[in-house]
Every structure is written in C-alpha cells, then in structure tokens.
Specification:
By secondary structure, the protein is mostly beta strands. It is built from four helices and 33 strands.
C-alpha cells in the first residue's frame, strides 16, 4: 500500500544582526569576517569593503565597527572579488574569494600606505582553516563531485533512486559518517535522525526524516553540500548531524553539459557463480543548461535574472546478484530424511514430537521419514512452491535470480532574481518519477508485481523560495519557504 507523506518546512528569520568579530550563516548562506589593519597592525576603521560576485556581478557591502572589524553576512555560496578602500591607503583587491555553504570564513586585511588610486591585487584567497566556529564539518564542492569516481548501477534490492547517481554518496568521505545513502549514521546517531537542508530549508519527510531517495534533485544540479557533523549552531538543531545542499545557479555566461553513463554485459566479466554473463543494460543520461534569462527584443537578464535547468534519466536493467540460497532437496520436501547425514556419515535423526516423554526424550520417525499424513495444511500449500536445488549438498545450492528494473526521470529548475543590490529572491523546483509496472523478479526469477521488489510509481516534488533583503549592512531580513512531497 502506498502511503502519502507530505512535509512542509517554513522558516522566517527577521531581526538585528549586530556586528561582531564572528558572524553566523543563515541556512545555506555563507559569510566572511575579519579585521582591517595597517602595516603596523593598528586598526583601520571606516573603510569601504565590498564583495562582487564573479558569476552574477552582484555587489555586497560589509558592515564595520569602529575597531576595524568587518563582516559580510547572508552571502550566497560562490566566487567573489573583494575590494577594500580607505583614504591614505592603497586599494586592496583579492581576485578570488570562495564563500562556502553555511560557512563563515575569516580573512584579515592589511592595507599599505599610499594613494587610493594605487592598488595591490592578490590572485588567490589565503583563507585556510575555519576559525570562526567550533563546528566540525566538511564541504564537498562541485569540482570534487565531478572529479571523484562514483559507483553506478546496482542489482538485487537496489532501487531506482540508488541506481541513479546521488551526491550524498560522497558524505561517506567525511569523518564520522557510516551506513548507506538512504540510511546513514553521523557520529553514531540512529538511522533517519539527520537534518537535511536544500537551499537552506528542511527537506524532512513527516515519517522518515533523513531519507533522500525520492527527494534528491539531479546530480548535476548540486553546486556543493556541507556535512555538519557536530557542534554546529543552534539554527541547525533539528537533527543529529546536518546535510546542507546548495543548488547550482545560473551566471552571466551561458553554460551547458551533456552526459551519458553506460554499462553493458558485453563489457563485463561473468559473475563467479553464473554459467553465462547475465544481461545488463545501464544508461544514465541527461544534461544541464544555464545562464542569464534572455528573450530577444523583450528582456535581457544579464546581471539581474538567471536560470539553471537540469535533467537526468535512468534506464537500468541490472544483473541478478549472483548469490546462492540454501533450499531443501526434493526428498526432504516429501518428508524423506533417510539421507540426512553429518560430515562423518552418521544419520541425523528426525524425532517425532508426538512421542515426547516427561524426561524430554523422543522417538525418531521410522526410517527417518515423516509420514505425509503428518504434514499440516500450511505445509501442503507451501511445499509445491519450493523449487528443487540446482547444486549438490544442503547449503548454497540454488542461484538467486532476483532483480529490479529501474526507470527514473528527474529534472530541476532554479531561477535567481536580483531585484536591486539589496533585494534578491531565488526559486527552486525539482521533481522525480520512478517508473511503474511489474519491475522486479524474486529469487526464483518469477515476476513480482507487488511486495519487496516493487518500486513504482514513486514521485517526489520539491519547492524552495528564498528572499533576502539588506536593510543596511548590519540589519538583514531573510525569508525561506520549502515544500517536500513524496508518495
């Protein structure tokens, strides 16, 4: 029986964020903080410090204290150009500053005396270890997700959702995480006790928190994610460990990709227990396309409106698992255990339970054969369904023929709108559908339209809306809404 499970996450954060030397992130948004000094180490207050996105050209202004501390808050993950100016000092330019998901990094800036028309440019960010929080966490960035090998395919009880590439497979590269993608343990926590965030909003299902199989966006749609193991801020306190995903946004440049992952039995070796190579057909295909929204003669969204679209399809007919079951010999099914002997050749007696005496002793069946009239009606109905062994012996004598076919389709769209420098909104949507029908076979090789080998149709629908307003550098307003559905 299919059960409907609906979970909606709704969060509104409105308040003052007074400037301190350490700033916290909001949801999946990051930040940058530090101190501004001169060459002698003295504080330099009242400077102008900005971050400019290298992808969208959006500009963020830092809040500063009179002691020369600065902080950028609620900054979307991405790559930025940092500029710091003050009269009497050379302009400081850092070409590449990376803001990570739910991470506030620290970067101290030293200005050199000179004219503001002069500048000192640094090409790479010197940001190293995170020192602004005791949190133990790991960020997996997009290039890492694309470069590292990932297992594809699957067989037996592998669902379509796990046959498709899943970014959360990489969480097991982080310290303290064990298990399998849909049932993981972070620092010894029980199954399904982890908080899961997409775009800063919870994706928990009402009955199975931490379950991602039917709620994951396409693999290519994930820009990066962060595994927050322990000592994370209280705003992430709904789980024993947090998976925090940021989806990929469009930029001022059009970018697109096409891919296909292919596996076929013609390229595989024969499994150990199989007489022949079983049929395998694995195809995962799709692509992505993103950039500024541009409608000829109507609208040019450069520096303002961006989109990113992703699609992935999976058609998987995996091989049987090539494992062995233990089935009783045909004589045993008739009640004849006269050949039932141990390794030394001694007969193993089958005792008649109706002959049990007060001291617990019993009498074996004559000839070690159970009469057919002693079979229960349940046994009479069940025994004809058990096949004969294929191999000699009592154990590991029948080859498993179970498998489950997968037909999976998932696509996503993310749209970002920079209304003004101080107002921005983003909308994300993704949906997945796993195919229906008698898609599996049990260990006998028989079609199983219902039960453990049935995985369809399964549908997941997700929405995320985030609105951010910078009222002034030290006063921010954030609104987030999310809806997660899986049948």
């Amino acid at each position: 029986m299919n059960r409907r499970r609906v979970s909606a996450a709704f969060a509104v954060v409105l308040g003052l964020m007074l400037l301190t030397s350490i700033g916290l992130a909001q949801g999946n948004l990051g930040g940058l903080t530090g101190n501004l000094t001169d060459e002698s180490g003295a504080s330099v207050p009242e400077a102008s410090i900005t971050l400019r996105s290298q992808e969208t050209n959006n500009v963020y202004t830092a809040a500063m204290t009179g002691e020369g501390a600065y902080a950028f808050r609620a900054v979307p993950p991405g790559t930025y150009r940092l500029e710091a100016e003050r009269a009497g000092f050379k302009k400081f330019v850092l070409e590449r500053v990376v803001i990570l998901t739910a991470t506030t990094s620290q970067l101290d800036i030293s200005l050199k005396v000179g004219e503001v028309t002069e500048s000192i440019t640094v090409s790479e960010s010197p940001i190293g270890l995170q020192t602004t929080s005791p949190e133990v966490s790991t960020v997996m960035q997009r290039q890492t997700l694309l470069d590292l090998p990932i297992q594809i395919g699957g067989s037996g009880a592998t669902t379509a959702a796990t046959g498709r590439r899943q970014p959360e497979n990489f969480i097991f590269l982080t310290p303290g995480v064990v298990g399998i993608p849909w049932s993981k343990n972070i620092n010894g926590s029980p199954d399904f006790t982890n908080e899961v965030l997409y775009e800063g909003v919870s994706a928990q299902l009402a009955t199975t928190p931490g379950f991602l199989a039917q709620t994951s966006p396409p693999y290519e749609a994930v820009e990066e994610f962060k595994v927050q193991n322990t000592l994370f801020p209280a705003e992430f306190g709904r789980g024993l460990g947090v998976l925090n995903f940021t989806l990929r946004s469009g930029t001022n440049q059009f970018h697109g990709t096409l891919f296909e992952f292919f596996r076929n039995d013609k390229l595989d070796a024969r499994a150990f227990f199989s007489a022949t190579r079983p049929r395998i057909r694995y195809n995962e295909f799709g692509g992505s396309f993103g950039g500024p929204v541009w409608i000829p003669k109507l609208y040019d969204g450069k520096d303002r409106t961006f989109f990113n679209f992703n699609y992935a399809g999976l058609r998987n007919s995996p091989a049987p698992p090539s494992t062995l079951y233990s089935l009783p010999p045909a004589a045993f099914l008739r009640g004849d255990f006269s050949s039932y002997r141990d390794a030394a050749g001694n007969l193993i007696p089958i005792f008649d339970p109706a002959t049990t005496l007060s001291d617990g002793s019993r009498t074996p069946f004559p000839g070690n054969v159970i009469p057919s009239d002693r079979f229960s009606q349940v046994a009479r109905n069940l025994l004809p369904l058990i096949p004969n062994p294929e191999r000699p012996g009592y154990f590991n004598n029948f080859l498993d023929r179970s498998f489950s076919r997968a037909k999976d389709t998932v696509w996503s769209m993310k749209v970002d709108q920079i209304i003004t420098q101080n107002h921005r909104v983003s909308f994300s949507f993704w949906t997945s559908m796993t195919g229906a029908g008698p898609v599996g076979r049990n260990f006998l090789g028989r079609d199983t339209p219902l039960g453990f080998w049935f995985y369809g149709p399964v549908e997941g629908v997700n929405y995320r809306v985030n609105y951010d307003q910078t009222i002034r550098p030290n006063l921010l307003h954030h609104f987030g809404y999310g809806f997660t559905y899986s049948n």
